[in-house]
From TrEMBL:
<keyword id="KW-0119">Carbohydrate metabolism</keyword>
<keyword id="KW-0963">Cytoplasm</keyword>
<comment type="function">
    <text>Phosphorylase is an important allosteric enzyme in carbohydrate metabolism. Enzymes from different sources differ in their regulatory mechanisms and in their natural substrates. However, all known phosphorylases share catalytic and structural properties.</text>
</comment>
<dbReference type="InterPro" id="IPR035090">
    <property type="entry name" value="Pyridoxal_P_attach_site"/>
</dbReference>
<dbReference type="InterPro" id="IPR000811">
    <property type="entry name" value="Glyco_trans_35"/>
</dbReference>
<dbReference type="InterPro" id="IPR011833">
    <property type="entry name" value="Glycg_phsphrylas"/>
</dbReference>
<protein>
    <recommendedName>
        <fullName>Alpha-1,4 glucan phosphorylase</fullName>
        <ecNumber>2.4.1.1</ecNumber>
    </recommendedName>
</protein>
<keyword id="KW-0328">Glycosyltransferase</keyword>
<dbReference type="Pfam" id="PF00343">
    <property type="entry name" value="Phosphorylase"/>
</dbReference>
<dbReference type="GO" id="GO:0030170">
    <property type="term" value="F:pyridoxal phosphate binding"/>
</dbReference>
<keyword id="KW-0663">Pyridoxal phosphate</keyword>
<keyword id="KW-0021">Allosteric enzyme</keyword>
<feature type="modified residue" description="N6-(pyridoxal phosphate)lysine">
    <location>
        <position position="685"/>
    </location>
</feature>
<dbReference type="GO" id="GO:0008184">
    <property type="term" value="F:glycogen phosphorylase activity"/>
</dbReference>
<comment type="function">
    <text>Allosteric enzyme that catalyzes the rate-limiting step in glycogen catabolism, the phosphorolytic cleavage of glycogen to produce glucose-1-phosphate, and plays a central role in maintaining cellular and organismal glucose homeostasis.</text>
</comment>
<keyword id="KW-0808">Transferase</keyword>
<dbReference type="GO" id="GO:0005737">
    <property type="term" value="C:cytoplasm"/>
</dbReference>
Amino acid sequence: MNPQTLKKSEAASSNHHADIQQLIRQYGCGPVPITGVEHAFYDRHIVFDNVMSPNAVGARERFEAAARSIRDILSQRWIATEETYQREDAKRVYYLSMEFLIGRSLINNITNLLLAQLIPKFAERKDLDWHELLEEEPDAGLGNGGLGRLAACFLDSMATMQIPAMGYGLRYEYGIFKQIIQDGWQKEQPDNWLRRGDPWEVARPHEKVEVSLNCSFEVCGGSLRAVPGKESRLIGVPYDRPIVGFGGKTINTLRLWEAAAHDYFNFEEFSGGDFVGAVAETLEAESLTRVLYPDDSTSKGQGLRFVQEYFLVACSLADLIRRFRQSNDDWNLLPEKAAIQLNDTHPTMSVLELMRILLDDAELSWEKAWDLTQRTLGYTNHTLLPEALEKWPVEWFRALLPRHLEIIYEINGRLLIDVRTRYPGDEEKVQRISLIEEGETQHVRMANLAIVGSHCTNGVAAIHSRLLRTHTVKDLAEMFPERFSNKTNGVTQRRWLQMCNPTLSKLITDAIGDSWVTDLSELEKLRPLAEDRGMQDEFRHAKRCAKVAFADWLHRTTGEVVDPDSIFDCQIKRIHEYKRQLLNALRVLILYRRLRENPTLEMAPRTFFFSGKAAPAYRLAKVIIKFINNLAGTIDGDPLMRGRMKVLFLPDYCVSQAERLIPASDVSNQISTAGFEASGTSNMKFMMNGALTLGTRDGATIEMAEAAGEENFFLFGLTAEQVADSRSYYNPYWHYEHEKETRDALDMIFTNQLSCYEPGAFSPIRDALLSRGDYYMHLADLGSYLEADLLVRELYADPHAWARKALLNVASSGKFSSDRTIAEYAADIWKVEPCPVTFD
């Protein structure tokens, strides 16, 4: 190593903490400049973390050094945030979620620390390929879709708004899976995102939590299963990640729990030669948090998920109660100092665990414990699908958590007395409200438990909240009307506009200033500018820059070539029948057939993008992916389609991919069957990036169209009421028999023209659409979808008219910031105030 480099690194190490202290004192409430100190941080990590010459390290080591250097800058502010909350005894929000789809952290933290403009200079001085370095960070495998991404946006907003908050989740060693496409089929591979560690997280073994279970674990047939009847103790080891608020003023914490075996190790067994027996318990216990979603097609997988949910709840509640008791010895103050939000039904066992703590540990009366539990907990519902409302077998509670089952029975007994008193003689209502679903196997209805055990239940879009009250849990809503409210979802504009779309962000800031970054309602100032021809041209330029950037990235990473002058038409989300990727593919197939039959047909060049993962056990969803890929191959192999139409299924959809494709998109497909999508958040991201929505009146798309004007959307299809009303008589065969384009397209699929090498591969599509009645009404909406698509093509032929509508969409997206959503939660549900961080 160069002696001069070594000398500089040693000096940086000796003055390391003092330098950080000085930096944060000076710049703690604003941007921290890239100075010689930061260079020293980086040099120190390169040399001392790796014990290597700077000339010998690779891209991964350079990424880790950069990340740790940024963490050095924020560490003192992170400590100060926690100290301020303790000193002020502030009321805190504890956000419990099984998913946090946070994506990459380096560029996000740099953005929120206001360092983004200075990083290129740093990279130039260090001779770094900044883009290569960013690609070294994997997306954190902590989530799957909208539920987890919403949780991540909420954490960003709470930190930016200086709300005392903490996220609680599980530290999955493996994400859901890495998706590869092989012969058109989805194949799953392990997503070992922690293989090389994570420079952002900090282990806190001194704050570990012990969890007792009436079961142990064993590996059987290659999978982990719970074995009831044998008590075991797990250790929850917390790992903390910083959540940087914009400007770096507040840095909250996401605490993730990793399962470990109890500290006791059976050395006698080990030394006696029983190596497997001695270490098996440790390995099996640690497997609890190995994967994000166990395979729920088996009882073993479902059982593991059940224990995962309790593990999250038990660790998190023990930790937050410890924090509460540090400053408060009066249990009556719990709702005044803690607001626990349950992100969907997964953390619902919080109702039971908090009651257990208050009854057994605090020795409070039932009435007092129940009052405190309800006032402390809030529940967010994310689905109207009955199959997505969790129900766990009573026997599992009896075998694994017997004390919690006693509490369930007591809650339910008191609840049903109340129901019979209020609705005498209505035993059907009693059965619908009961926490226990009767049948061949008794189940605990977790959504009912969450509603009964909390003071507030909210939906996540106006239509969703209405349908939740009037259909999904109608009886409970009638019994507790004051508990139900709506909190329409939002996304953080810091990541989904400012960070991922720099050209459009600069255009907006140049036009109206930069206050939109923390107050998205400021985008309304763009509305009159949408009529300006010059602004329209600048918007078109910004959109093309994003499209060229995406096309370059796609070619560099996959070899695929797309035309940035074509319409980028996108549907990127989890693959599910109700989200109707199949409907989109049918539209593409019909458009393809039209071009084949009439090559002179005027139609702007178009690139159709699909992306999303299917649950490994969801057979039909995987068949839909196969169909899309075969359709793409057919079109790509047709010389007549060159330069006119292309279809791409992008594998392994993730946050980082979305950050590239959403800014580049012209058309956003939000085409769920009306009444099935709770809210949607990708629709909001597309809108604020200037894509026009082609969609149904479902979820938050309804509110988005109201904000921008329906004339600036391409809406089609049945409404939720029409879907419900037509259930009794809907016959998909009618569309097959009376709509020639529909029949010809389906016949092309069913006669194996798109699967000549795998005859019958698409039989499940025929079964779903015709034999089983087309439950999600693809064929009912297909004609309307094609009519709306024609309007898309006609408008795109007028570039300025298109840009005007796109700008009006951007200007109208202010309501859909997660800052607005969090402000509503804070005021209406949590009753929590900002707590500005002070730094001594």
